[in-house]
Amino acid sequence: MDTPHNDKQRKNLFPYKLAQTLVGLIAVCFLIFCIRSPSTSSPSPFQTTSSEKETALKWIFITPYGETDSSYAELFLSQEDCTELAGTPVELSFCTIEKYLNMTASGISADVVTCWYTDSNFKRLETTGTTWALQDLLNKEIPGFTLPENFIRWCGNFQGDVYAYPHTGTILSEDTSIKSAAAMIGRKDILEKIHWDSQQPLSKAYCLEQLKAVRKAYPELIPCYVELPSLQQMFGVTADTGTAWEDPFFHPGTLESLEFMNTLFRERLLSRDVFTLSQESLLRQLQNGEIFLAASPSLGKLLSQLPESHPIWEQYEILSPILSDSGREPALSNNFEEQYVSTLFVKSSTQSQFQARLLAAFYLQNMEPSPEQKNALERSGLGDLLKNAEPMKSIGIDSQYTVPIIHYEILFSLYSNTRLATADERKQKFLENQIVNLVEDCSADEIAPTYARLVSELQRGDYKLLDTWKKQQYQKAISILQE
């Protein structure tokens, strides 16, 4: 679900400023860069360069949409920001995962590739032998900078190697911030006219009544754009129970969310594009004031990156959540859809020094360096990273309903196992189709039995294998945290 930023914020946001989305954003994916390159040349072998004649570091950001329009591009780091971060000239470009795979098949490559949402094709590139195992890259360019064992267990694949560096707010810890990526916003002028108190949590009945009034008074507007993960969180759905991982689709709040979306659709209140609209297009519609109410699981992060003077902020304000009839408290989180941005370093690159420099910079945003790691950086002429490194900061919308959760990097090693990856991909496509059917094609009486059949289907065969594996990985994460 997306957000504004000013010039100062712009240099500090990664990956959403860099390219989250996600997701939503995804995935998903979106984080803050606080590292700055030195103003003078650092000792050999690492040399900060500024000449335009130098061979640029080719850095590709993979997004769901490839090239972005001007308004959406505001959410990404600029080429100048990336050059400053890398310490060498950077050639920045955007493409879809499909285009990138076609490029590599044609022999066209890059030096650094960042995917800002979860994509199994991206993660499985690590099995091709074309990208660096992170420790191998560090051994080559920063001898003595050894990734800790628990980091490898947390982020690594089935073979115990880490290839894709995860850009998350925390690694090896819970996310205990009081901010959430989930947000719901409404048009200020209309809220005032219909006396809708933005600070007051809503009942489903009251929300329906007000949306019907808006549809009647403003027929040119889309009454609401509400994504399923947003409703799930508002109705108390969470994958992290504190002691176990549970598939969010099996939570009772999911059925309530689907029933409410079905009601919204049958009452002609829900955007017909809710399952197909890109974040890019959603931002454009909000900028034009075409939607009265919008809720998206990544909207908080997107909004936090927009400039304070952006038209969206001028027209919209944050609303309190819609409450479940069950009395469950909302459970808003920053990674409800298990999405995080990650970066691969291409092995054929001639700029492995700057690849390693970037990798070390990324690491210092997540982790406290050990004395051995500090010494390795100093010996390699990268002491400036230690001086300029700052911990990552949370971004998003403040919420009293945000719940602490562990980060899910540890669940994504499934993509290096063909059977699990295939089952996960098949499950996602299956659910996408079935959810559209539940919302748009079922009568009110058909939803519960149809949902029950889906749950039963997802608890058999490879789907069950996938569910069991994620439960085991969650317990592994708990074990690492306790250590």
Short characterization:
The chain is α/β, with parallel strands linked by helices and about 475 residues long. It has 20 helices and 15 strands. The two termini are about 35 Å apart.
Task: Describe this protein's structure.
This protein is an alpha/beta fold. The chain is 40% helix and 11% strand. The chain has 20 helices and 15 strands. The chain has helices at residues 7-10, 70-73, 79-86, 97-105, 120-123, 134-141, 149-155, 188-193, 204-217, 228-234, 252-266, 279-287, 299-304, 311-315, 352-366, 371-379, 383-388, 418-440, 447-457, 461-482; strands spanning 57-62, 90-95, 112-115, 165-167, 174-175, 179-180, 183-187, 202-203, 222-226, 291-296, 316-318, 322-323, 341-345, 397-398, 405-406. Strands 2-1-3-13-4 form a 5-stranded mixed sheet. A 4-stranded mixed sheet has the order 9-10-7-11. It is globular and about 70 Å long. It starts with 6 loop residues before the first helix and ends with a helix. Mean pLDDT is 83; it is low at 1-44 and 48-53.
Structural class: alpha/beta
Give the overall shape, derived from the CA principal axes.
globular
Task: Output the number of helix runs.
Answer: 20
Radius of gyration: 23 Å
For the secondary structure, the number of strands is 15
Strand order within the widest beta sheet: 2-1-3-13-4
Uncertain regions: pLDDT < 50 for 5+ in a row? 1-44, 48-53
Indicate the topology.
Layout: H1 7-10, E1 57-62, H2 70-73, H3 79-86, E2 90-95, H4 97-105, E3 112-115, H5 120-123, H6 134-141, H7 149-155, E4 165-167, E5 174-175, E6 179-180, E7 183-187, H8 188-193, E8 202-203, H9 204-217, E9 222-226, H10 228-234, H11 252-266, H12 279-287, E10 291-296, H13 299-304, H14 311-315, E11 316-318, E12 322-323, E13 341-345, H15 352-366, H16 371-379, H17 383-388, E14 397-398, E15 405-406, H18 418-440, H19 447-457, H20 461-482
Parallel strand pairs: 1-2, 1-3, 8-12, 9-10
Antiparallel strand pairs: 3-13, 4-13, 5-15, 6-14, 7-10, 7-11
